[in-house]
Each structure stands twice: as structure tokens, then as C-alpha cells.
UniProtKB/TrEMBL annotation:
It comes from the Eukaryota. The chain crosses the membrane at residues 99-115, 145-163, 169-190. This is Cardiolipin synthase (CMP-forming). It is a multi-pass membrane protein. Belongs to the CDP-alcohol phosphatidyltransferase class-I family. Catalyzes the synthesis of cardiolipin (CL) (diphosphatidylglycerol) by specifically transferring a phosphatidyl group from CDP-diacylglycerol to phosphatidylglycerol (PG). CL is a key phospholipid in mitochondrial membranes and plays important roles in maintaining the functional integrity and dynamics of mitochondria under both optimal and stress conditions. Pfam families: CDP-OH_P_transf. The gene is CRLS1. It comes from Bos indicus x Bos taurus (Hybrid cattle). One of its GO terms (molecular function) is CDP-diacylglycerol-glycerol-3-phosphate 3-phosphatidyltransferase activity. It catalyses: a CDP-1,2-diacyl-sn-glycerol + a 1,2-diacyl-sn-glycero-3-phospho-(1'-sn-glycerol) = a cardiolipin + CMP + H(+).
Length: 203
């Protein structure tokens, strides 16, 4: 049986805020308002730091939903940022395609895990009920590194037109490193598979 938990924790609300900021950032980048975009991106990054800090230090704020919602918020934010930055000719198309493809597969895997860990009879209301905790997700180490590298590239790319270094060789090196960690992260999930999912037993 699944565990019933309160989904309205501070970390979960911060993750939802990050999801809400994603389209705002996309719009600002497409409109080439990079100065404001940098500020909004810093705010999104702050919500990411805070939700992790709070969940780690206050047991009452840690939830199974948060273990999925936090990386999901990161993936939505990163996907919109990379598409927008590619539209603005600041990140190459192949790199964005690679990142989006990996994230789509991971999000599909999360929905599959939710379905498989839901007790029968499986219903839509039970599936989408955030109070029904059935599994806790544990990202791999290289996946955490990859998320950090992807966000560093976003920050560097957003700052590039502001500080006039869009053609820097260091940005191109960062593109290659980001591609490498993205591929390594995808392989780590394929290799470790079930070890990244902890099924919750009912109390």
C-alpha cells in the first residue's frame, strides 16, 4: 500500500515556482532581454538551492513527491531555457536536441514508475493524486553533476551577449563538456535502473 503524505511542503512549492518561472525566462530570452533574464534565472537558481536545503534539514519537509518534482522542475526549466537559447543562436541545435531527448525519456520513465508502483485497482484519480506516495526517486551522482553543468552553461550563455563573449572558445569547450555529462548521465540511468527507485511500503 502507498504512503499518504502532505504534498504542500515548502520545497514542493519552491519547485512549482521554478516551473512557473520557466516560460517567463523563455519569453525574456526570445525577446533578447538578457539582463532581466539573468536576474530571473538567478531567482530560479535560488529556489533550487533552497528547496534542497530545506528538504535535507527538516524531515517534515521531505516528501516522495518532492523527490520527483524537484528534478522534474529542473528538467522543465532546462528544456525551455535550452530551446530559447538555441532560438537566440547562443547554444547549438545538436546539443539542445541531445538534452531534450534525454529529458523526455527520463520524464516518460517517471510516469511509468508511477504507474507500476501504484496498487491495483489503478485509477486516474489515484494516479494523479499528489498525496499518494508510491516511490521515491534517487538521482545518480553523474546526473547531479550533469544538471549543474547544464545550468552553468545556461548562465554562461545568458551572460554572453551582456558581456560580449558569445564567440568565446571557452563556451564551445563547455558545450562539449555538457554533451559528455549528458550522455554519461543517460547511461547511468540505463545502467543502474531500478537502483534509482525506492518503492514506498505502506505504514
Amino acid at each position: 500500500m502507498p504512503q499518504y503524505e502532505n504534498p504542500w511542503t515548502i520545497p514542493n512549492m519552491l519547485s512549482m515556482t521554478r516551473i512557473g518561472l520557466a516560460p517567463v525566462l523563455g519569453y525574456l530570452i526570445i525577446e533578447e532581454d538578457f539582463n532581466i533574464a539573468l536576474g530571473v534565472f538567478a531567482l530560479a537558481g535560488l529556489t533550487d538551492l533552497l528547496d534542497g536545503f530545506i528538504a535535507r534539514n527538516w524531515a517534515s519537509q521531505k516528501s516522495a513527491l518532492g523527490s520527483a518534482l524537484d528534478p522534474l522542475a529542473d528538467k522543465i526549466l532546462i528544456s525551455i531555457l535550452y530551446i530559447s537559447l538555441t532560438y537566440a543562436d547562443l547554444i547549438p541545435v545538436p546539443l539542445t536536441y541531445m538534452i531534450i531527448s534525454r529529458d523526455v525519456m527520463l520524464i516518460a520513465a517517471v510516469f511509468y514508475v508511477r504507474y507500476r508502483t501504484l496498487p491495483t485497482p489503478r485509477t486516474l484519480s489515484k494516479y494523479f493524486n499528489p498525496c499518494y506516495a508510491t516511490a521515491r526517486l534517487k538521482p545518480t551522482f553523474i546526473s547531479k553533476v550533469n544538471t549543474a553543468v547544464q545550468l552553468i552553461l545556461v548562465a554562461a550563455s545568458l551572460a554572453a551577449p551582456v558581456f560580449n563573449y558569445a564567440d568565446s572558445i571557452y563556451l564551445q569547450i563547455l558545450w562539449c563538456f555538457t554533451a559528455f555529462t549528458t550522455a554519461a548521465s543517460a547511461y547511468s540511468y540505463y545502467h543502474y535502473g531500478r537502483k534509482t527507485v525506492q518503492v514506498i511500503k505502506g505504514r
